[in-house]
Amino acid sequence: MKLSTxxxxxxxFASDLHRxxxxxxxxxxxxxxxxxxxxxxxxxxxxENCAIAALLHDAVEDQGGTETQKQIYRKFGEEVGKIVDGCxxxxxxxxxxxxxxxxxxxxxxxxxxxEVALVSAADKLYNAQSILxxxxxxxxEIWERFKGKKAGTxxxxxxxxxxxxxxxxTPIVEALxxxxxxxxxxxxxxxxxxxxx
Length: 197
Known about the structure:
Blueprint: H1 5-17, H2 31-43, H3 48-56, H4 59-62, H5 65-76, H6 78-87, H7 98-108, H8 114-138, H9 149-167, H10 171-196
Helix pairs in contact: 1-3, 2-3, 2-8, 3-6, 3-8, 5-6, 6-8, 7-9, 8-10, 9-10
């Protein structure tokens, strides 16, 4: 598959939208996350529309809500727009409460289209890998970055894995399952160490 100039346009659009945004608890430019998710989507067989949606999957949620959503449909078409919509857990400000948003998102996973599921799984895989990497560097401080803290974050990722496994166990779902298991293992080991101190 050869990527077209539409992909280049989406990359520039995403970079401009997220230019002032950084990853939670770090100075890493947010575009690193979008590029990582896009890379996973392409590596796991996504087409150009999926790759573009991967670059834009957080745009509505983080950078402009329905106005940004309209721009995505106008610039990149209905298929990309629908994938981005499927990956968005809130498009209004203020966002609904964290638990409510996450529960609603989990419940949608079994019904997602193949394309939405691919981009969503890539997003969750990239995030879980990042948490694991940062955990090695900062330890239990990592959980303070998240609204759900340690218990809520682990609940969310385990629930996401279970929901993806209900629909179809694809290679990317297997990869996500393995990383979430690793994350749970290190979190449980640290809890045991703390109790023994």
